[in-house]
Fold:
Amino acid sequence: MMSLLLTRQAASPRGPAVTITRRFFVSVGEPSAQAAGAVRPKRDPLRYVMWDWFTTEVYPRWRRLHTAYALAGGAGTAGLVYYGYGNLSAPAVRDRMLETFERGDITKHDDTPVAKVARPELIAELQEILQPKTSAAYYVIVGESGTGKSTAVREAVTSLPYQPQNKKEPKVRGVVYFSAPELPQKFSVLLAETVGYEHDVADFRGGLRRWMSLTTKEEGALKIQEEPEATWIPLSTALENVADRFFAKHGRPLVLVIDATDYIAKKNRAFLETLQMFAKAMADGKHLRVVFVTSESATLPIIMASSYFKRATVKEVNDLSDADGLEYLLKRGVPRDRTEDAVKNITGGRLIDLVKYADNYAKYPSNAAYRRVMDTGTSEDIKKGGLKKDDKFFQFLVRHGAIERDVALDYLTERRLDHLLERNILANHEDKTYTFHSRVVETFFRS
Structure:
């Protein structure tokens, strides 16, 4: 038995290189008595070798790899937190809303083909409403279906002049156009999407408060099952906050256009009252102007009946002149011998009627044949309301052209009056008078 002393240099995970010395006993030939009586080490030499290999080779590499993973995980976590706060936090949502208004967005809408007629005076008037220097009132833009008011409002929004304070600032419009959905329950959710608002944001401080108070997010958040009011509550607060920021940055109020107000008036009058209350409050604050656009005569009395209407200003969009209607039909290729009679007795200056006539006149041999089809629909509508063509109410309207509401109620019940408004037989105006809804309806009762 002979002993071997092995020495080697090895790296240490906790300091400079160290010298490792190991003694091994090796049997050579026949063991001598001295070798036979020698004491062997208590541990197997192979275990020493394995431990040496682990401490000098495996552990340092594992430690370096573990450190790299830890650094990568920490960096990833920090990145997620930064992204969440920068994109999902309440301040980030407000920033996106501000950018949306500065850009001047228009929500998706269902366009009915309308006449492309230049109306520079109307567009200029609407632009003064949509980009005011100050605001102490909210607006109600009203006009009969087919007058082209919604198209004119959208054109006014897209053609608004930018007003940056200096060349380095982004170009700013400061208005968002939103068309209300047919289902009022979707109103607030869709409006939130349009203006860039998100209800479920990363609320870090709120989460800490909920954790400390032992409440859940569902318990602390608004119950959004009741729409449109539930989403409207935080959304209205966010709109007010963004309006204040916009005014501080650009020195003029924001504008929110709500088109198709008729859908809300028909199915949820209480929520329409809530919107008017908000519009009045914003008019008092002078940092946000709300503009309602309504197409139906039946909606205007509902809006005017509200106690919040006193801070409203009404802008009525009327038909084109007969001369402009005649010019449009001629440009559409309608023969001159039919255009004058068509404008006088069928279309007047109503854009939608002009478009329909230009699209379909060739299907009828004469204007009289075209008008008979239109008269059939009018006759059926008045019969459904329990009325006749020669009733005294219609005779009065033919003689005078307009009738006040109090006088109209002497001839008709309020239910029948509302029926005529809903069926587009009558039109209601800001001065509380009624007229025939369109030229073709007027011609029906005059004939």
Residues 1-6, 23-41, 81-86, 217-222 have pLDDT under 50 and may be disordered. The beta strands are 2-12, 15-26, 138-142, 175-179, 254-259, 288-294, 312-316, 403-404, 426-428, 433-436. The chain has three domains: 2-65, 97-316, 364-446. Residues 360 and 370 are 9 Å apart (CA to CA).
